[in-house]
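For practice. Any example?
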Amino acid sequence: MSMMSGGTGESIVPTHTFANTPKLDILIVPGGMGTRTQANNTALTNFIRDRMGEVEYLLTVCTGSALAARSGVLDGKKATGTKFSWKWITQQSDKVQWVPQARWVEDGKILSSSGVTASLDMIYYFMSKLYGEKLARRMTNIIEYMPNTDPTWDPFAEIWGVVNNTAKSGTGNGSSNAAAALANPIGAGGSLGMWIAALAVLAVAVF
């Protein structure tokens, strides 16, 4: 297996292939611009579908819900995703009960978050659910993050014109409220690193 380069310059060294991945308890499907091409990667979507039966939880972040939708595991389920790319996400399946205004959505063992930083709030809820709020609060205190605990709080659905069906394109470009989003850039730069750091801190705290 060769080293992979991420969109922000980081290097990723795979430890397994889809064929030899061990049994999983939790499967996290991240998002990003790469999902636009990976949505047609049947090896990836088949992996998500095939592992759904064994995992205890499936979590998606941002446009990761589009990949889960393409795999079929969200059929008949409620889910959300980033409002910046809402049109493209929802085009991936008409069998999903897409929730247009939500920070994160829980449906059985599936949790899906909106754009990037919303995953921090979803992870906080998820950690509280699994390990108790005391540990979850310790995790966010270490990284100095104040989580939003209301899953229905989603001002970005209005900013990107999702709640009134005025979103213009698959990337959200053309929204009449785009300037408002740029003026209040929650989820810009570094937030993915914060999410990864949160998981790393959890691993240290638990193990």
